[in-house]
Design goal:
single chain, 175 residues, alpha/beta, Rossmann fold, six-stranded mixed β-sheet, three-stranded antiparallel β-sheet, 9 strands
Length: 175
């Protein structure tokens, strides 16, 4: 039985506009030596668009990825992060920009910041496309946020439901 179609919350054009605006806001805080670190898997869509938007804003950052897993195919975090693939690029003495799709519990982003600091980054900045409200304070808050999301189950633009719907060009809700 197929799930019903997601309710569109942020259409494709608005996603693109928010990414462009975020890149313009972030460009003065980074340089071409900055290493952008995409949190896989969900951050891939946002990170690719952000890298192109930063290039249009005159910033040609370096790229790396970190694969963390805290959800699996579940709708709730398991409460711990598993490192499935570590960083490849040296970070010692460099500014790092961690990029992820959604800031929910804060667990993945907090763990990524810890790992990047441990790798020797001189400064760690964070960017997420969507920040969801949370009932209790989180360990960290992202430096850059493209969209303040509602407390709904989000899909599309990298966010998934048991591995499906990531490729939608918009952000929708399944609830």
């Amino acid at each position: 039985m197929a799930e019903k179609a997601p309710t569109v919350l942020v259409d494709e054009a608005e996603v693109a506009g928010r990414v462009e605006d975020l890149a313009k806001a972030m460009a003065p805080r980074i340089d071409d030596e900055t290493v952008a670190i995409c949190l896989l898997t969900g951050g891939l869509w946002f990170c690719a668009d952000l890298m192109r938007a930063l290039a249009r804003a005159g910033r040609h950052v370096r790229f790396d990825a970190l694969w963390l897993a805290s959800y699996g195919d579940e709708r709730a975090s398991r409460g711990r992060c598993e490192v499935r693939a570590d960083l490849q690029r040296p970070l010692v003495g460099r500014r790092a920009l961690i990029v992820d799709d959604v800031f929910d519990t804060g667990l993945s982003l907090s763990e990524a910041v810890r790992l990047v600091r441990d790798a020797g980054a001189s400064e760690v900045l964070t960017a997420v496309f969507a920040r969801k409200p949370w009932p209790t304070p989180r360990a960290i808050e992202p430096d850059f946020v493209a969209w303040e999301a509602p407390a709904r189950y989000l899909v599309g633009y990298g966010m998934d439901s048991a591995g499906t719907l990531r490729g939608l060009p918009y952000i929708g809700a399944l609830d």
